[in-house]
Design brief:
It is a single chain. The chain is α/β, with parallel strands linked by helices. It has one domain: Alpha-Beta Barrel (TIM Barrel), CATH 3.20.20. It is 39% helix and 19% strand. It is built from nine helices and eight strands. An eight-stranded parallel β-sheet has the order 7-6-5-4-3-2-1-8. Strand 2, helix 3 and strand 3 form a beta-alpha-beta unit. The longest helix has 27 residues. It is globular and about 50 Å long. The two termini are 22 Å apart. 36% of the residues are buried. Bound molecules: pyridoxal-5'-phosphate (PLP).
Length: 236
Amino acid sequence: MLIKEHLHKIKQSLSDKVILVAVTKTKSNADIMKAYDAGHRDFGENKIQEMVRKYEELPKDIRWHMIGHVQRNKVKYMAPFVHLIHAVDSLKLLKEINKQAKKHQRVINCLLQARIAQEETKFGMPFNEIDTLIKSTELPDLQNIKITGLMGMASFTDDKKQLRKEFKSLSDFFKNLVKSQNKTESKIGDAPSSLQHNLKLTILSMGMSADYLIAVEEGSTMVRVGSAIFGLRNYI
Ligand SMILES: *Cc1c(COP(=O)(O)O)cnc(C)c1O
């Protein structure tokens, strides 16, 4: 099957409310253009250098998603154009993104990465750390970032029950945050500083080629799909 057909089939399996990020890491510009010519505009990369190169070479109306782990010293390279950073895992990183965004007079949208997988991983924050971060008194000062949601990656397993459990745990946590956010917003007479103006949770990014249908059933609003569209990669 062709890239265009894969893309079409996956889009058909998703409701209009779910955003499909086509993950293009290791893939050629020619392959990306096949999806682009089919009308797709949201593309994801996990390495900053590769994303910058593709940004420079490809049409400028592409929305570039940084889905991989971000090193602070590389934020500056993507700050001029990145559409959404999916894997923010510390206040320190958020501050660097804010600093670089400011230089370009932009507001950069960010998702906080939650740690939901069973296996040992250094990436992502436990739920209590996310809680602490969004309540931080330093957050309102960051005028050039906006936290628009959460992201999570499930365990590398075929165990559907386990995958569902992990997605559900993140989805429940997300829904509770949204609920308390809406409560705070509707309270009249709140001091403005108690409202995190740069916290507007609407996106839940979870699900990849092997598990996106389960993720969507559990409440995902954004899926990151690579190999199911472009075929297997030569390296990870
Ligand atoms: C590579 C990658 C994906 C897509 O993986 P596929 O299994 O090819 O769909 C999704 N999310 C992240 C963070 C990735 O690094």
